[in-house]
Amino acid sequence: MRIVLTSMPVISHLVPLVVPLAQALGRAGHEVAVATGAAMAEELDRLGVRHLPLRRALAPDQFGQDPELARSIGLDANGAPIADAAPTDPGEAFGRLFAGAYAVRSAEDLLEALDGWPPDLVVRECTEFGGYLAGERLGVRQAVLDHVPLVPTRHPGMLGPLNKSRAALGLPSVTDVAAALTRHPWFGAMPAQWSPSASPSSAERHYRLTAAPDQDPLDPAIAALPSDRPLVLATLGSNTGHMLTGDPILEHVVEALGALPCQAVVALGAHQDPRAWTGPRPGNVHLTSFVQQRLLLPACDLFVTHAGANGIRESLAAGVPMVAVPLFADQPVNAARLADLGLGLTVRPEDVGTALADTCRRVLDDPGFRQRARGFQRQMLALPGVDQLIADFTG
User: How many CB atoms neighbour CB 233 within 10 A?
Assistant: First the structure.
């Protein structure tokens, strides 16, 4: 079977689940390519995945190349949301951003890229709508990877932007967003209990899709850290460096962990050299620019996270409770769900300097958080694996 997977050109959308699924499909004997923006070409080449470049699918840091497009979907030239221009309806805001003009351009580019290579199946990650529109235009089977299940990916408010985009591709309008989108199978990488029953974006099928840990051995400097106290890993995501420029939040995180009877590892961000770090340097906090998160988490007692969907999934797959410091996008709702399920606690970004240390201490001192995280881990382990997913969607 010939299968194209589509993704927004963002590492956190592409690498944790889309790429491993593409690799697994290839091992199963299918002809596979990933369609996404050119910014991902080097990463896909490194991972040995065929790339169908979508020439107008811009990465977040490329919107300065097309400020008119950015404004039309509610972003500034740096790819950041324009707060006072966002619709009040969350579905309309999501639809304009992901299913509007950007999706139309991606769909047009994808149809061009697929000329001479018609797919039998389009698998898109749930925020990527170019694949949806192109698949509708081609009349081929589709499936959706719901990697951010608490985002309004099927909200009724999307109807206007979605129909405008459908019209641009010569497709008839729809009257029900959820019905139009869920006629294609949806599958997620979290147990059903993660999504509240009232959520319009809860996945219909659930699989164990956590990517394998890095094959490289753990950083020897981290392996050699003292083991006579709890180990805490802290990272605010791969975009920490440029998203938090001038913000003292990382300094507060380091300082708070330095006040605890723990050993901590803090990832400052891919472009932040620890040697140039001018913030606090407690003796029990190891600073690094990058950490092998999936590899290290099973050895941790606590994860301090910005509550991105990937980090939460990886931490729960390792049975590790969390303290969440949500910053933007889906992170606040993820953090709230984490707290609702008793899998961790939340600290507002503005309170990190005063509340993070005590909140981490509460989670470390209360075995209930660890027990509930372990219970959720067992739920994840009970999900069918990727081989079953491939059989279900390609059979």
Answer: 25
Average pLDDT, whole number, for the chain?
Answer: 92
3-state SS class at 124: strand
**CB-neighbour burial class of residue 13 (10 A; exposed 0-12, middle 13-18, buried 19+):** buried
Residue 73 near residue 99 (C-beta atoms within 8 A): no
* Tokens linked to 50: 């065929």
Q: What is the pLDDT of residues 195-237, one digit of tens each?
A: 886 555 455 899 998 777 667 899 999 999 999 999 999 999 7
Q: Which domains does the chain have, with CATH numbers?
A: 2-206 (3.40.50.2000), 220-381 (3.40.50.2000)
Structure tokens at 345: 């606690």
CA 14, CA 52: separation in Å to the nearest integer? 13
CA neighbor of 37 nearest in space, from 146, 26, 18, 352: 18
Distance in angstroms (rounded) separating the CA atoms of residues 193 and 56: 37
Report the C-alpha gap between 335 and 323 in whole angstroms.
Answer: 9
Which helix (H) or strand (E) covers residue 61, if one does? none
| Contact between residue 101 and residue 166 where contact means Cβ atoms under 8 Å apart | no
pLDDT, tens only, 37-92:
999 999 999 999 999 999 999 998 898 899 989 888 888 887 777 776 667 899 99
User: To the nearest whole percent, how much of the chain has pLDDT over 90?
Assistant: 79
CA distance 362 to 170: 56
CA distances from 58 to 26, 39, 54, 100, 126 (A): 27, 8, 9, 14, 17
Query: What is the layout of strands, in order, in the sheet containing 141-146?
Result: 51-54, 31-37, 2-6, 121-125, 141-146, 186-188, 205-206
Sheet bearing 344-346, strands edge to edge = 285-288, 263-267, 231-235, 302-305, 322-324, 344-346
- Look at residue 242 and tell me whether its pLDDT is greater than 50: no
Query: Three-state DSSP class for 52?
Result: strand
